[in-house]
C-alpha cells in the first residue's frame, strides 16, 4: 500500500480537524462499502470460477463421475462434490 500525505489531498480545515485526534501517526481510512469490489472482480477470478463450476455441474449431469471430474479439473473429490451438490 502506498502512503499519501494527507496535506496533499485533504482540505486544510479537514486536515486540522483530523490532527486533533491523530497527530503524526499513520491511520488507515477504509473504502466506502458501496465503492468496494467483491473478491475476484478486478482480476476476473470470480468469473473464471463461476464458469468452471458451471462446466463441472453440467458434466456431472451428463453422467461424468466425480472421480473423473476430480482428475480433469485437478481438484479434490470433496471439492467436486461441494460444487455439484451445492444448492443454488
TrEMBL record:
SUPFAM superfamilies cross-referenced by the UniProt entry: Homeodomain-like
Source superkingdom: Bacteria
InterPro entries: c-mor_Regulatory_Protein, Homeodomain-like_sf, YraL-like
Protein name: Mor transcription activator domain-containing protein
